[in-house]
Write the structure tokens for this entry.
Amino acid sequence: MDAIQPAFILVRPQMGENIGAAARAMLNFGQNRMRIVAPRDGWPNPKASAMASGAGRVLDAAGLYDDVQGAIGDCHYVFATTARVRGLTKPVLSPEEAMAEARAMMAEGKRVGLMFGPERAGLENEDVALANAIITVPVNPEFPSLNLGQCVLLVAYELARQGMAPDAGRGLEGTDFAEAIEIEKLGDRYEAALDDAGFFFPEAKAANMRMNLRNMWSRLDLTRADVQMLHGMLRQILRRGPGAGG
């Protein structure tokens, strides 16, 4: 991913026309990094190409992924766009606030992902749990849904309005941040250990407990050194066993 461009990640988009509209919106504001997760009608999609018109180059270069984890795997920080109130504890930002954060992080060398959900109902909680923060727009509460192309347009516009010029960042230049795939593997290991220990009980609450655990990992701004340390901590705990410390 280019240092000054985020990945626009369309999760399970349903209509080719909306994918094409998203491509046009991106290119209108100088963005060309599109990733598509499990499109309902397959890929490539002739309706997307027809709708994209002069922005076909964005579709030609788009990456195709089977799942969200694969699409965000190399990202250091991911924003999820949603209009619905969620039961997940995450920073909730306006597009202006979010793109200011994105700009600062990209100036530090972080790779940023922007997730957009399918047209019918938006992102699922399981998708949002993998993100670090939420972008929400103060729309009419009686009609909160935005078309996929409109949502992409709004975020791409705000990104362009911010200027995308490198700035002083947040004093973290050169920091070796962990990628999403590294944090996912760390979460897998802790989840397996907790499963063996009988932590996910009772069974009726297990799925929600697992999702909350994933949500916790995604909120942490972990470096690669943090991830290595957390792996080492768990390895030592498992090696010594319960009560080994006396």
About this structure: Residues 89 and 152 are 24 Å apart (CA to CA). Residues 180-240 form one domain.
